[in-house]
Every structure is written in C-alpha cells, then in structure tokens.
Amino acid sequence: MKVEIYSDGSARGNPGPGGYGTVLRYVDTTGKEHLREYSGGYENTTNNRMELLGAIVGFEALNRPCEVVFTSDSKYVIDAFKQKWIDSWLKNNWRKSDKKPVKNVDLWKRLLAAVEPHQVTFLWVKGHAGHKYNERCDELATTAADSDDLQVDDQFESQGE
Q: Which one from 8, 135, 153, 161 is the annotated catalytic residue?
C-alpha cells in the first residue's frame, strides 16, 4: 500500500502556542483519492516539537506497513533522516556531534517507533511556496495554534526544551 504523508508545525513565539497539521493521501486501485486530516494545538511548545508531532501523528495513523512518501518543509525532520543524524544520535546515546544532548528525544523516539514498520522516502519542500498539501498542513497547524482549545505539552513543560 502506497501512502503519502504531509505535515507541518507552527509555534507563535517559539516557545509559545503551537500546532501541527497532517494530511494523509492514498489513491486506491480504482483511482479514487482518499484524504485524512489531523491537527492539534498546544499552549506552550516549540516549532520543532510541532514539526515532529505532525510527522508522528501521520505515521501513527497507519495501521499496517506501507510504502510512505513523507513530505515536509522541516529541514529539522527531513535532514535527521536523510543526513543520518539519527544514526549518530543513537550511536552517541542521544548526543549531538558537539556532545550536547539532542532536544526533543521523547518525540524522536516516538517518531522512530512510528516509522519503523514502513518503507519511507523523505522529501523536503520549500514552505509557503504553493505546494498544495504543504499549504493545507500549514493552515491546519496555524489554525490549531490559534485555537482556544489548546493542550498542555507536558514533556516540554517538564524538560524546558
């Protein structure tokens, strides 16, 4: 099964109120397009945490192993896989090359677990450049960040990342 996942994250103030938006797209054997959208907002978080959470929500929505094309405007997320940063972080016990701890380890671990059963191609797109699904994810993320129904990012609050 081939699935496309698009995601984006947003934070007002960074840290500040934030949100994520995710779109899953699947075209069935008859050529019919199926779309699912997800979003959520948090009272106090960072843009990077919302970028990660958008990806996580997309992968966690899949209920069986798939071929996935994951597209995001987040170099933070895409390059971690394409540039093999994660391999180094794992080898160095979640420390970067400068020996400082990797931020958002809770979400990186969750994303790795969510990605693991799938065959994934990671694609970066320029943000705010007219890409249909990236623009939709941005709209979902910013709407969620601006909503009155915001959750608490407990891990962020406890770690101060």
A: 8
Residue with tokens 């798939």: 66
To the query of whether residue 148 is one of the catalytic residues in this protein, the response is no
- Cβ(135)–Cβ(3) under 8 Å? no
Q: Would you say 141 and 12 are in contact if contact means Cβ atoms under 8 Å apart?
A: no
- Of 3, 33, 8, 2, whose CA–CA distance to 125 is shortest? 8
CA proximity to 20, closest of 43, 44, 49: 49
User: What pLDDT score was predicted for residue 160?
Assistant: 54
Q: What is the pLDDT of residue 127?
A: 84
**For residues 29 and 21, is the Cβ–Cβ distance under 8 A?**
no
Averaged pLDDT in 10-residue chunks for the chain of 161 residues: 96 94 97 97 96 98 97 97 96 94 96 98 92 96 95 82 48
- DSSP for residue 149: -
Task: Give SS3 for 23.
Answer: strand
Q: From the candidates 4, 51, 135, 153, which is the catalytic residue? A: 51
Domains of the chain, first to last: 2-159 (3.30.420.10)
